[in-house]
Write a structure and sequence with these properties.
Blueprint: E1 4-13, E2 16-22, E3 27-32, H1 38-48, E4 66-73, E5 78-84, E6 90-94, E7 106-108, H2 120-128, E8 134-136, E9 143-145, H3 148-151, E10 156-157, H4 159-162, H5 178-190, H6 203-228, H7 235-321, H8 341-444, H9 460-476, E11 485-488, E12 493-496, E13 499-500, H10 506-526, E14 534-538, H11 557-563, H12 567-577, E15 583-588, E16 601-605
Parallel strand pairs: 3-15, 3-16, 10-14, 14-15
Antiparallel strand pairs: 1-2, 1-4, 4-5, 5-6, 6-7, 8-9, 11-12, 12-13
Helix pairs in contact: 6-8, 7-8, 9-10
């Protein structure tokens, strides 16, 4: 099924019976007396689909607090939109209902937003396949996203619009929206939107933008002039000062670099001398410890020698006494019981003498080592003293260079400060030159658009084909001179035998307007293009009014001629034949021909209390 279908429109409120209109696929007719709420029904449909934000205020609506619109959303199934009569957000419930269900429903905004999809407009357009479509609204290519409120008048055609002299294409009823209306018409007839169009500002916008740019640049130039103050504005003089300063700075930098190199050299040599001194001092400390240990060893050697010499002297004495009478008992050697003592004493004497010789030899070797170590210690002391002299000399040289280094560093810092000031001045001057150049470019730039005018509306071939669809519809309706029907691309309206639609009476204009809307629907549906799928026509057969009872007055000559035809019957039969394609709801004041009673679902508002249905809503009795 193409598009959507309306199923019912109901009004509910506390302490009052609900008022409900049913709709079927195909042709629906609501007719009857004036001021019975027929047109109010079409306004309520627009209200429920988010095309308008408020319901018309009447005495009858005061008793109701909610409106329910049952509909079929394409292949998604049946749903019901709920909205309070005072307006605000809507709720979408599954199924066809006229009272609050247990579920919460999907909350939808009544206002379309390009940044959100939670609106009734977005939901309807998504169902139609027209979601996120963009339409150019002016010659600059500015676009707006399609909202159902813009598309609505191709689905619900009000009484004032249908008889208006204004082209049916111009649904916005505003001269400034003509481009938007024509491009919407193009979207319907071709399915192509303007999303790819590049926006170019209008000439007034470009003039304003140019003035704004110039003003901004002038403000920036004024700020730079303020920062420059009395400073030289001549770049040549500033560049000369900078060159002279750089020459002086180069000399200072070279001198400072030379002094710093010397200081670094002294520091490196001093550090090497200090490291060498630490190394030699450590070695000298090791020698002192070794000599101290060797001195103790020498003392041990001397003590051992004294002991061995004593043993050696005692042994000699005892050996000399061997072979003599015992000094104690006077026994002769032969009478003495032990004879081996003399031999043992001799051996001990010999051993002691040998050990003493060994220690004396080691003592002499130790003396040589000690002498060598003393010599090394003396050499270390001399080297350490020499290194300390070198360190002192390096310190003095560095100290002597410090004043020169400080003076050169001060000169270098002063050079840097002056160069920074000149650099800042040059930077300001460069920025000012660029801004001045930019200002000249902006001032010289043209505000005229070099782009060719954007095409507006459908191409002529599309309009010709659409004109044939209008002709086919009016031929089905038996409209006089239908073979001479054309769609004027310049006026964006129907002509009959060269006569513009707006040159006819209200009734003829209404019929031609209705034919336009039916042709749009048939064209879209036959070509598989998006269309709302339903069409509400309010008073399309105005020609068949009774002048004495109608607010629209007497019939004009062309209306009288049209009324004399069988157009009304053919009109309804043709609309009924579109049941598979389009749902049509016709709101009329005059009775429909008897021949179509079996072809349409008909609702009658009598406007008479106690005689059938009085009107859309309960008659106000307050």
């Amino acid at each position: 099924m193409n598009g959507i279908r309306l199923r019912h429109l109901a009004f509910t409120g506390p302490n009052i019976e609900s008022a409900k209109l049913e709709f079927v696929d195909g042709l629906n007719i609501v007719y009857g007396a004036s001021n019975t709420g027929k047109s109010y029904a079409s306004e309520a449909v627009l209200f429920m689909l988010g095309a308008v934000s408020k319901l018309p205020k009447t005495d009858e609506i005061k008793a109701y607090d909610a409106v329910w619109l049952g509909l079929t959303l394409g292949g998604q199934g049946e749903f019901t939109l709920y909205r309070a009569t005072k307006g605000g957000k809507l709720k979408l419930f599954p199924g066809l209902i006229t009272s609050h269900p247990t579920g919460k429903g999907e909350v939808l905004s009544g206002k379309h937003s390009a940044k959100a999809t939670d609106s009734v407009s977005s939901r309807i357009l998504e169902t139609l396949g027209l979601h996120d479509r963009w339409i150019v609204r002016n010659a600059s290519g500015e676009k707006e996203q399609l909202a159902f409120r813009v598309l609505a008048k191709f689905a619900v055609v009000g009484e004032e619009d249908i008889m208006s002299k204004r082209s049916p294409v111009y649904v916005s009823n505003s001269y400034t929206e003509r481009t938007l209306d024509q491009n919407l018409f193009k979207l319907l007839l071709t399915g192509q939107d303007d999303a790819a169009t590049v926006t170019v500002p209008t000439e007034p916008a470009r003039i304003a933008a140019k003035a704004a740019k110039l003003e901004l640049v002038d403000e920036m130039l004024a700020q730079l002039d303020k920062e420059l103050g009395d400073a030289l504005a001549d770049r040549t003089q500033v560049d000369a000062q900078l060159a002279e300063l750089d020459a002086s700075g180069a000399t200072t930098t070279a001198g400072l670099l030379a002094v710093q190199t010397m200081l670094d050299d002294y520091a490196a040599k001093r550090r090497a001398a200090v490291d060498r001194r630490l190394e030699l001092t450590a070695r000298a400390a090791e020698l002192d410890i070794t000599l101290e240990r060797f001195a103790k060893l020498q003392a041990v050697y001397s003590s051992d020698l004294d002991r061995l010499h004593s043993i050696e002297e005692g042994g000699s004495l005892l050996a000399a006494m061997a072979g003599r009478d015992c000094p104690v008992c006077g026994a002769p050697p032969g009478a003495q019981k032990h004879q081996h003592a003399a031999k043992e004493i001799s051996m001990a004497h010999t051993a002691a003498a040998a050990e003493a010789r060994k220690i004396e030899r080691e003592q002499r070797e130790l003396a040589h080592v000690v002498d060598s170590l003393h010599a090394e210690a003396l050499a270390l002391t001399t080297s350490i003293a020499s290194l300390e002299d070198q360190i002192e000399e390096f310190d003095q040289r560095a100290l002597d260079l410090r004043p020169t280094e400080a003076s050169l560093r001060s000169s270098f810092e002063n050079y840097n400060a002056q160069r920074a000031e000149l650099g800042k001045l040059i930077d300001l001057q460069l920025r000012r030159e660029k801004l001045a150049s930019r200002r000249a470019e902006i001032d010289a730039a043209s505000t005229k658009s070099e782009r060719d005018p954007l095409p507006v509306g459908p191409e002529s071939t599309v309009l010709f084909e659409f004109g044939e669809s209008v002709k086919a519809v009016l031929t089905e309706w038996g409209f006089p001179d239908s073979d001479k029907i054309q769609f004027d691309a310049k006026a964006n309206d129907i002509t009959v035998a060269g006569k513009a639609r707006d040159a006819n009476g209200k009734g003829v204009r209404a019929v031609l307007h209705a034919a336009f809307n039916v042709a749009v629907a048939v064209h879209c549906i036959d070509k598989g293009l998006p269309h709302p799928g339903f069409l509400v026509l309010d008073t399309p057969l105005l020609t068949y009014r009774e002048p004495l009872k109608s607010k629209h007055g007497d019939l004009s000559d062309d209306e009288k001629a049209l009324k004399a035809t069988s157009l009304a019957e053919k009109f309804y039969k043709h609309l009924a034949s579109l049941e598979e394609k389009l749902q049509v709801i016709v709101i009329e004041n005059s009775d429909p021909p008897a021949a179509i009673e079996d072809l349409a679902y008909i609702e009658v508002f009598t406007g008479l209390a106690g005689d059938g249905r009085y009107g859309l809503l309960a008659r106000h009795t307050g």
